[in-house]
Design brief:
The chain is of the alpha+beta class and 169 residues long. It has one domain. The protein contains five helices and six strands, in the order βββαβββαααα. The chain has a six-stranded antiparallel sheet with strand order 1-2-3-6-5-4. Helix 4 packs antiparallel against helix 5. The structure holds zinc ion (ZN).
Length: 169
Amino acid sequence: MKCPRTGVDLKPVNIGGITVDISEKCGGVFFDHDEIEKFDQKTKIRGGLLVQHLKQFTPPSLDLNKHINCPKCSGVVMDRSFYSSKNKIEVDKCPSCAGIWFDFGELEKLRNLIPVSAGSYKTGQQFEERLLNSPAYQEYKTALDDNADDTARREKADQLHLFLFNCIY
Ligand SMILES: [Zn+2]
């Protein structure tokens, strides 16, 4: 699948047993119709990890009002509409496969909109902080930041994906 904003190949990333497709060019992410439910609330650890991971891919300047084609369904234009009537953040939805595209930063905004109970939020947040502050994660982050060579950077990124996956399962 190609990134609907930039045309690069989307990269499948396995986070806690669920594979989503991300754009390393613009920090966007495509979810199949039922996958987003595992990522949308702040208590859902997968979402926190994905938000942190996507942050490193700063987008080029993009016209977000431009309608995009579904990366999965050839020739189908996605609808730009609110995520839900309660959660009024605009995302791109496919009328054919019900997949959703989030541009850079939109997943984080959505997660900030959906209310969660204080207790469950705290538990999820503590877990996420522990994980993101762990020496192993920091090591991968440093390697990603320091290494300007693209191939090596890609290998490190792959290791990071694997690391995130192993932390959850
Ligand atoms: Zn589609």
